[in-house]
Design a protein that fits this description.
single chain, about 525 residues, alpha/beta, TIM Barrel, 4 domains, eight-stranded parallel barrel, binds 3-methyl-2-oxobutanoic acid, binds zinc ion
Length: about 525
């Protein structure tokens, strides 16, 4: 029998479902950096990817299993459809992990069965135990998900879950795949599963949910009240379409309101024992890292991690907070690691101090990346007196987000003003090593730069997002630029940070174009040969 935990297990799927957000594609190194941050945050399970989906996904899962998933690390999970090939590939990628988990899934809603799978309920009832048992032949820890459970017939769901557990599933995950259910319905679904699946005490009930109606977090909290003990979530709530339940919101809701939730976990209301293993002080930096590496900006009013989440604008509120914090604050900004910027390094700091601080922040760079980042740090330190952890994160994310640098920015120069027509000149090094210069006029300096770059790169695309934010306060702050562009329906993102926002804009655009160019090259290489 599986012992039910007396706390809530946090299963992070930022690197799998989160990476399914349009344009959020990450390189293997970026995934490793995020996996390390997730381990520091204290998540119990990292869903590192879908190994059968691509060689890149396989490599990322394998590397994360080998490094972050070593002894003492979190459980490393891989996703697999309910087929032998998927499961076998997943098991292979997970081999180096000390605690591997295979997560296999098959849809159970009639809509999915009829239109997507073209299978009968009887076929699903046969496949599920067979594939769970197959996964179990590789690893002890097997999770099964009936996809679109939120719209499945509960009676059929009970039968499927019973068979999955009998075949060895140790966690059964209930996905609201399309974000359709309401909190009361989702809570009732979990209650029904607890009451009607005869062997449910042999598995942990997990929940997975999308935010199409903005209800994912509320649904999960109802699920916890009704017996769910694992929550599948992502940093900043990124994920397919409107995203997944946000880790930071779930964790802080369970933390701030623990006296409300304690009794549902059999504890006294006043128990101060944390309900999750998350080190909440790591939430803020994990959020920034994911936002910078995926290019998915966090809206300023986002709960917990938005720039305004702890800002008080109205005079009445400011006055109240000055008199007593609790008048308008339900949690302390420091509890999520939001401290006043600390000056950590200055222009006289050496490479060793720089490397050590980056390691503490979770970045492990190759020698080349470190050299480049150190040069950028020195350049920035020359312009800014104080270099904070936030500046460092922005500089390093910029450095590792640029790879692979197929087109390289050699020069960007603009002329603009209220009486001038914005004009830009750029020099790029092309992937063939050729240096090309071009110029363009635009509606503003950034538009002129992008038009000049387009004249050299010559890949048509549509800019769908351009945002500039400042890393810290002050006129000399680093500016972060995030852009997303679309080409043939696929979205590519770019990110850059610089004290000069025109330079940051050019680098961010080029970074997205390099991803696009790289993807086109891969497609060309993998295109079937014609005879
Ligand atoms: O949303 C979903 O149903 C999923 C499953 C693979 C768990 O992501
Ligand atoms: Zn999902």
């Amino acid at each position: 029998m599986t012992t039910q935990p007396d706390r809530v297990i946090i299963f992070d799927t930022t690197l799998r479902d989160g990476e399914q957000s349009p344009g959020a594609t990450l390189t293997v190194d970026e995934k490793l950096t995020i996996a390390r941050a997730l381990a520091r945050l204290g998540v119990d399970v990292i869903e590192a990817g879908f190994p059968y989906a691509s060689p890149g996904d396989f490599e990322a899962v394998q590397k994360i299993a080998e490094t972050v998933g070593a002894v003492g690390g979190p459980t490393i999970c891989g996703l697999a459809r309910a087929t032998q090939k998927d499961i076998q590939t997943c098991a292979e990628a997970l081999k180096p992990a000390a605690k591997p988990r295979i997560h296999t899934f098959l849809a159970t809603s009639d809509i999915h069965l009829e239109y997507k799978l073209k299978k009968t309920r009887a076929e699903v009832l046969a496949i599920v135990p067979e594939m769970v048992a197959y996964a179990k032949s590789f690893v002890e820890d097997v999770e099964f998900s009936p996809e679109d459970a939120g719209r499945s017939d509960p009676e059929f769901l009970y039968q499927v879950l019973e068979r999955a557990i009998s075949a060895g599933a140790t966690t059964v995950n209930i996905p609201d795949t399309v974000g359709y259910t309401t909190p009361a319905e989702f809570g009732a679904l979990i209650k029904g599963i607890k009451e009607n699946v005869p062997n449910i005490d042999q598995a942990i009930i997990s929940v997975h949910g999308h935010n199409d109606l903005g209800l994912a977090v509320a649904n999960f909290l109802e699920a916890v009240k009704n017996g769910a003990r694992q929550l599948e979530c992502t940093i900043n709530g990124i994920g397919e379409r409107a995203g997944n339940a946000a880790l930071e919101e779930l964790v802080m809701a369970l933390h701030v309101r623990r006296s409300y939730f304690n009794p549902f976990l059999g504890r006294a209301p006043e128990s101060t024992e944390p309900l999750t293993r998350i080190d909440t002080k790591q939430i803020h930096s994990a959020s920034r890292l994911v936002s910078e590496l995926t290019g998915m900006s966090v809206q300023p009013n986002k709960a917990i991690v938005g720039a305004n989440a702890f800002a008080h604008e109205s005079g009445i509120h400011q006055d109240g907070v000055l008199k007593h914090k609790l008048t308008y604050e339900i949690m302390d900004a420091e509890s999520i690691g939001l401290t006043q910027n600390q000056i950590v390094l200055g222009k006289l700091s050496g490479r060793n101090a720089f490397r050590t601080r980056l390691k503490e922040l979770g970045f492990e760079l190759s020698e080349t990346e470190l050299n480049n980042a150190f040069l950028r740090f020195k350049e920035t330190a020359d312009k800014r007196k104080e270099i904070t952890d936030w500046d460092l994160e922005a500089i390093v994310s910029d450095e590792i987000r640029q790879a692979p640098e197929l087109f390289r920015l050699e020069l960007v120069q603009v002329s603009c003003g209220d009486r001038a027509r914005p004009t830009a000149t750029v020099t790029l090094r092309t992937p063939d090593g050729e240096e090309r210069t071009d110029a363009a006029i635009g509606t503003g300096p950034v538009d002129a730069v992008y038009k000049a770059i387009n004249r050299v790169v010559e890949i048509p695309n549509e800019l769908i997002e351009f945002s500039v934010t400042s890393v810290t306060e002050g006129i000399d702050a680093l500016g972060k630029v995030t852009i997303r562009l679309r080409h043939n329906g696929a979205v590519y993102s770019g990110y850059a940070a610089n004290t000069d926002i025109i330079v940051a804009s050019a680098r961010a655009y080029l970074s997205a174009l390099n991803r696009l160019y790289g993807a086109l090259q891969t497609q060309e290489k993998n295109a079937p040969a014609t005879v």
